[in-house]
Every structure is written in C-alpha cells, then in structure tokens.
Design goal:
The protein contains six helices and 13 strands. With 274 residues, it is α+β, with helices and mostly antiparallel strands.
C-alpha cells in the first residue's frame, strides 16, 4: 500500500502511515511515495493529491486526482454540484452577492482552496460597503451545529456510509468567547468532537451526505463532508469536502482501519486477475 500525499512532509500522511503499520501484522505494509512505484500493481491511497505522475491504469488509485481537484477547489466543487439544494447557495457573480448582502450575511471567499476559515470575509448589511471582488460567494445558512461526516465505500462497492462523525464545539479558555460564530475554525477556538454513536446524529445529516456523494462524486472512495445543520427545521446543507482531513485524536485510527480493509479487498481482487 502506497500513500500518495498532497505534499512531501505532510504530517497527516506520516501519522497515517505509522498508524497503519502499527495496526498491521506486517510491519511495513504502508509507505509514502510520490514517484512511479516499481514492480507489481499497487494500491495507492491518494491523500489529497491533485496530480499523480504515473499512469492511473497501472495501479488501483483510491480517489483519483481529477476527483480530488473537483472536491478541493471551491469554485470547481460548486460548479460540479450546480445549484443542488443539498449544498450552500452560491454564486460567482458579484452583483448577485451584493443583492444578498443587502438582505443578510454573505461569505466572501477570496481563496478557491484553503481550510480553517482562511480567506473568508463575512459581509452584512451593517457594513454599508460594496461587496469586494472574489472568485466565490456563498449565502448565509442558519445553523445550530456544524458536523464533519467522514464517508467511505468499499473497494468495488457503490454505497457510501459514515465511518466517523464529528461536531464542532467551542472550548473556552479563561473566559474566552469566539470572535465569530459564523466561521467555526480552530483559530477561533473550535475543535471537533467525535460521535461514536451515529444514532445521536440527525438522520438527515447522514442522508444528505449519502445522496450527495452517490449523485455527484460516485467514483470517490472517501471524503469528509462539512455539513451545516439547522435543528428547528431539520435542514442539513453541505458546505465543502475534504480529501485529506485533519487526523486529530482517534480520526487516524478510523482511517487506518478503513485503509487496511481496502488493502485486504485489493489483495483478493488482485488474485482474481493473476
């Protein structure tokens, strides 16, 4: 098994490799590589990489670079899903964004890629200023909670199921209050809290993730979807996807177990074609 990181030196890819090797009966089942693997056909875990230099047909690649690009680039992501109401309302038109901002909050997204709320400005009628030029704008969505739903499917299966669900919670330190409840980022004092029991997660949140992936990203194998949930109306809306999610706490163990399972499937599939 080869882990292809989005960049050399990726700490999450290194943690993932170490956890897989510690959990396996074989001490070096996983390696990190960004060049053409030698020898027999390999199972390659594409950990957020938007390009792979070697031919895809020669190996079994989990999450193709094309799908990763469409998921990681915010403009490509929203263009691919269109105006499906399972996702945030969005536009690339500044005039449209200005109309939204005259009535409520608009999120001005200056970066097409990024995480942790970087590159996002919140615009509202109170500012009394014109909305700045940006590649993407999303309309404010009322939310009670924000979930990260890690979805995955088997090597050859078509149905996606959750392998981990987390919710963003604010951890105050010395009376600290968040600078904003609109952008719930790590820098703003929020962390992910895991939900081992999926029955405590609103069913509509899991359903919208299953539907979105089967309809718009059926070729992917794993992705972490960020979902805004409004409890009074039981409305979940997807805002983005992550192809190399942070591996805090037990997240790395969950992914290591999943990839080890894929590797067992891969070995069986490879035997069929020998």
């Amino acid at each position: 098994m080869i882990i292809h990181p989005y960049k050399l030196g990726s700490r999450s890819a290194k943690r993932l490799k170490e956890c897989i090797n510690q959990s396996s009966t074989h001490s070096r089942i996983a390696t990190i590589l960004k060049r053409q693997p030698r020898g027999k056909k390999c199972l390659i875990i594409n950990w957020g990489g938007s390009a792979i230099e070697y031919p895809e047909g020669n190996n079994w690649i989990i999450n193709s670079p094309k799908d990763v690009v469409n998921m990681s680039d915010k403009v490509l992501f929203f263009n691919k899903v269109g105006h499906d109401k399972s996702f945030l309302e969005w536009t690339s038109d500044r005039d449209q964004a200005q109309q939204w901002a005259s009535k409520g909050k608009v999120f001005v997204r200056h970066l097409t890629r990024g995480s942790g709320g970087r590159g996002i400005d919140v615009w509202s009628p109170e500012r009394g200023e014109a909305v700045p030029s940006a590649p993407l704008y999303t309309r404010h969505q009322p939310k009670t909670h924000e979930y990260r739903v890690h979805m995955a499917r088997s090597l050859t299966g078509g149905s996606f199921e959750p392998i981990l669900v987390q919710r963003k919670v604010f951890i105050p330190q010395e009376g600290q209050q968040p600078k904003s409840w609109d952008v719930r980022s790590h820098d703003n004092g929020f962390i992910f809290q895991a939900y081992p029991d999926f029955t405590k997660v609103p069913g509509s949140v899991l359903d919208v993730c299953r539907k979105a992936l089967s309809q718009h990203f059926p070729e992917m194998h794993f992705v972490a979807l960020d979902v805004l949930y409004h409890a009074p109306s039981d409305t979940p809306v997807i805002c983005e996807g992550n192809t190399a999610p942070g591996l805090e706490n037990n997240t790395v163990d969950v992914y290591a177990e999943y990839f080890l399972g894929l590797n067992e499937e891969f070995k069986k599939e490879r035997m069929v074609y020998l």
